[in-house]
Amino acid sequence: MWRRLEKYLSEWKETIGRLPLLVRGARQVGKSYTIEAFGRAHFQNVVVINFELYPHFKPCFQGLDPKEILAKIQLLLGVDIHEGVLLFLDEIQECPSAIMALRYFKEQMPQIPVIGAGSLLEFAMRSEHFTMPVGRVGFLYMEPLSFSEFLAASGHDALNTYLAEVTLEHPVDIAVHEKLLSLLRTYFILGGMPAVVSEYLSSGNIMQCQQIQTALLQAYRSDFGKYAATVQQKYLQRVFDTSFRFVGQRVKYSHIDSEMKSRDLKQALQLLALAGIIRPIYASHASGVPLGADLQERKLKLNVLDIGLMQNACGLQSALAVEQNFLQINAGALAEQFVGQELRAYADPRRSAELYFWARDQKSSTAEVDYVTNVDAFIVPIEVKSGKRGTLRSLQLFLAEKPASLGVRIAQTPLSYHERILSIPLYLIAQLPRLVAMCR
Question: How many C-beta atoms surround the C-beta of residue 34 within 10 A?
Fold first, then answer.
């Protein structure tokens, strides 16, 4: 399956003075597969060391001298590692000294291409004795398959090409629009976890796909012991089990569990966010960029890692299969999850993608805009509409008060621009920056 990250990996390979690279992301989003496939396509060979499967390689990194490290690896594996060979250190969080050693690969052996990857890297880098090689390591962040990646994987890449050329003067043809909505329904059921998509493409068996989703959810639960003490795990379990139902809603810890302390639930949510399972969305005053400079931590909404896992955890499979207006299922929470997931997927992978919303809580006038993002230096408010109708009062209030030249409505409706509101169909989010630039 083609992944957008491959473009950035190729750019990294050709960069003069490239840094050793760490690829970060939640478990099972496709990091290992993508890196190995990239390595086979662009290097003479790929040497893979998986510290979780083969912990006996950890002593190779007790010293930080890259020459000694490579000598030990070559003796153990019987391979020659040189500048035409990619050294891939998988599940690198299991060997924190290997992360620290990346600095010395940059300083002493920069000709050796090295990539590390891990699903719980954030926890390794927060440990008491860990020293991050700042300025000596590059980062890429990986998300589940986006809708455009799903189209490419499922044999519909021509639709991606078509959508890349859509304009206000030449919008999407109605027949193509209906086809894309049908594919969008399938994506809502499957989500973007590579194992699920791969099963669907090979067998077409939705039941098998749902079983894989259930297994993935259980795998995330099984990971709790890797990053939390036993006493914390009951809070992790509670937040994990309820978070899928809170997508699109303002969250108060008392709503998660009224008998548990907010402090403990907040810590559990932060741990699940570090693991990449939950994606907190904080309110921003949206008075300028960066949007995170004036966020309001007390105002919190949630996204989760993947829409397929969300619908599975909420038991929405049957409704998605038969409901005509599937975007309104669960009060539109699936549509809001999809938009947030797409915004993350198309963000610059060289930095962690953060999501924000805007809210005004005044007794005389309340308003809330689902997402606030930026295209270059321009603030763009986004309202998600699950139905074909709906007022845009909050979006219009935002445009009246904030430094934004236009607002975006994402819905089923066709592409259009009227009175500073750009309406974009849900399947066109990949083209959001291009379309916004056309209207400024």
Answer: 23
Query: How is residue 396 written in tokens?
Result: 């219009």
CA 125 to chain centre: 20
Work out the angle at residue 418's Cα, subtended by the Cα atoms of residues 412 and 424, and round it to the nearest 5 degrees: 25
CB 191 within 8 A of CB 30: no
Among left, alpha and beta (phi > 0; psi -120 to 50; other), residue 406 is beta
Q: What are phi and psi of 76, to 5 degrees?
A: -70, -40
Placement of tokens 């398959």 in the chain: 145
Task: State how far Cα 358 lies from the chain centre.
Answer: 21
Quick check: 66 and 108 in contact, CB under 8 A? Answer: yes
CA 156 to the chain's CA centroid: 22
Over the Cα atoms of the chain, what is R_g? 23
Task: Using alpha carbons, select from 11, 2, 19, 100 the residue that is nearest to residue 348.
Answer: 11
Q: Is the pLDDT of residue 321 over 70?
A: no
What's the distance, Cα to Cα, between the start and end of the chain in Å? 35
**Out of 61-65, 195-199, 307-311, 364-368, least confident range:** 364-368
Q: What tokens does 106 get? A: 């940059």
Enumerate residues 6+ apart whose C-beta is below 8 A from 398: 286, 358, 367, 369, 381, 404, 407
91: phi > 0 → left, psi -120 to 50 → alpha, else beta; which?
Answer: left
Q: Are 285 and 294 in contact (CB under 8 A)?
A: yes
Which of left, alpha, beta for 363 (phi over 0: left; psi -120 to 50: alpha)? alpha
| Structural tokens at position 394 | 């909050």
Phi, psi of 117 (to 5 degrees): -150, 150
0.70 cut: is pTM over it? Answer: yes
